[in-house]
Design brief:
Strand order of the largest sheet: 2-1-3
Structural class: mainly alpha
Strand content: 5-15%
Order of helices and strands: HEEHHHEHH
Shape: rod-shaped
Length: 163
């Protein structure tokens, strides 16, 4: 199976979404919290969406990626809303110590790449894999040169015979 650029973008998006679930979402002075939360958090659903997206990409069912990316984005928005409300209810000192971390960036990037893969916004599926490359052109030139040499050697002489 040949991977197209559309497949690569989708695979990178799925991997980014899965990696973001294990990356820190909140950081505080004594550690961090990730989205999976040892199997107890909503990050398990995000991981499920990432794995399903991989299967959809390998099955060339790109339009279904809208569903998995929408589900992932809904979970991310809900989690951000709930975490923001939980942080807002704490004291000012705690609010200053807790920060959103880089796991959000990975997951949002993953969702965006999955949407781009599903939408085929750059026309990546219309690229033909049969386009000749420079190497193919060089091989063709060598083949034509060798055919010309064969014709020269095997062609009868056109000079008149002297008797």
């Amino acid at each position: 199976m040949k991977l197209t650029s559309r497949d690569v973008i989708g695979i990178v998006g799925s991997m980014s979404l899965a990696a973001g679930a294990f990356a820190p979402l909140l950081s505080y002075p004594y550690g961090s919290i990730n989205y999976v939360n040892n199997g107890n958090g909503d990050g398990m659903f995000v991981l499920l969406f990432a794995v399903v997206s991989l299967f959809l990409i390998f099955g060339n069912a790109y339009k279904w990626l809208y569903l998995t990316s929408l589900g992932s984005m809904c979970l991310l928005v809900f989690a951000a809303y709930m975490l923001n409300n939980a942080i807002a209810d704490t004291s000012l000192i705690v609010r200053l110590l807790i920060t959103f971390s880089w796991g959000w960036i990975l997951m949002i990037l993953g969702v965006v790449l999955l949407v781009l893969c599903a939408a085929d916004i750059f026309g990546m599926s219309t690229i033909q894999d049969n386009n000749p490359t420079i190497l193919d052109s060089q091989i063709e030139v060598k083949r034509l040169r060798s055919l010309r040499r064969l014709r020269r050697v095997s062609a009868p002489s056109r000079r008149p015979l002297h008797m």
